[in-house]
Amino acid sequence: MKKTYVPALTFQELFNVFGIPYYVKIDVEGHELDVFRGMKTQVPLVSFEFHMDQKRVEEALKIMKQYRMLGDFTVNIIFEGDRSQYFKEAISYTAFEEKFESLCAQKNKRRKAYGQCFMQALPASPL
Fold it and tell me: Do 51 and 29 form a contact (C-beta atoms < 8 A)?
């Protein structure tokens, strides 16, 4: 098998060159947590794909906890095959965390395997 070197940049390096984008979709085939660990700046809107088996639900929650270290945010999700977001309005991370595992278990019974999670940064509180 031929090996190919592919250079990688962190989001922070890209932000330093191009500025902070409004929206970033992260799709790195299971390495999302590593990407979020490298972020030092919150993006107004960021999304990533999650899968609904127990291990990956826990991974998705770890991703959100990592992102929360940069600031508070609201969450909404779209399940596979759905045309709109699950919640009428995005909810707080705390409220979402309480519901996420049971939601995935219910949807998984209906043969839905994955979804897209959207996290929208909340403005920083004035001091």
Answer: no
